[in-house]
Amino acid sequence: MQRIYKFAGYISCVHCGLNLRCKTGNSSVDYGYYKDMARARALPCPAGGYLQVRTEHVMQQFGELLQGLRLPAYWRDMVREQMIEAAQKAGFDQEAMEREKERLRLKRGRILKQHRDGYIEDEEMEAEVAAVELALRALEVPETNGRLVDSRDGRGTPRYGHAYLGTWRA
Ligand SMILES: [Zn+2]
Fold first, then answer.
1. Which of these, 82, 97, 109, lies nearest to 137 by C-alpha position?
2. Domain ranges, ordered by start, for the chain
3. Residue 45 in 3-state DSSP?
4. Which of 39, 71, 87, 152 has the CB geometry, 3.0–4.6 Å to 49, for a possible disulfide?
C-alpha cells in the first residue's frame, strides 16, 4: 500500500535540524516512520542521528497542536488592516471606487423604476438588484469603526504559525 507522508519536508530532528526521511514500516503494521538520517549520512547529531518517530504519533501531536490554536482576539481587524494595506500598495483608487459605487446605486434606482413602471417582472428585478448589491458589497471598504487598528498594540496577542513545526522529537 502506498503511504502518504503528510509531514514530509516539514519535520526535522530537534537535535540536529536535519529533515526527517519517510520510512515505510513493517508491512504488517499500519504506520510508517519519519527517521533521522544523520548517522546514515555521516552527519553530526547530538542524539545519535538515527531516531525515528511513528507517523501516527506525528499525526496525533499535530491534531493536539491544531486544537490548541487560538486565533488572536482581533484577527478580523488584523485581516482588514492587511487587506487595506495590500490594496493601497496595489494602487487602490478610492475615487474610482466611489464613482463605481455611485454608478451601481443609480443602476439599482433605474431597475426599481423600470419595475415600478411595469417594464420588468418581479423576478428579473430581483435578480438584477441582487447582482447590483453583490457588486456594491464587493466594493465596500472594510470598515474599522473609525479607528486605525494596530495589531502590534501590546495586547498580548498570541503569535502562531509554523514555528511549532519541526519541534517533534525524533
Ligand atoms: Zn538528528
1. 97
2. 1-69, 75-139
3. coil
4. 39
- Averages of pLDDT over runs of 10 residues in the chain (170 residues) are 76 92 80 92 95 91 87 84 81 79 94 94 92 85 41 40 38
Distance between CA atoms of 93 and 9, rounded to whole angstroms?
42
Q: How far is the CA of 47 from the centre of ligand 1 (A)?
A: 6
Which DSSP letter does residue 153 get?
S
C-alpha to C-alpha distance for 56 and 26, rounded to whole angstroms: 14
Among residues 93, 23, 92, the alpha carbon closest in space to that of 53 is found at 23
Rounded distance from Cα 33 to ligand 1 centre (Å) = 14
Quote helix, strand, coil % in the chain, to nearest 5.
45, 10, 50
User: What is the value of pTM for the model shown?
Assistant: 0.42
CA of residue 10 to ligand 1 center, whole Å: 14
The Cα–Cα gap between 170 and 166 comes to: 10
- Crossing angle of helices 122-139 and 94-116, in 10° steps, is 170
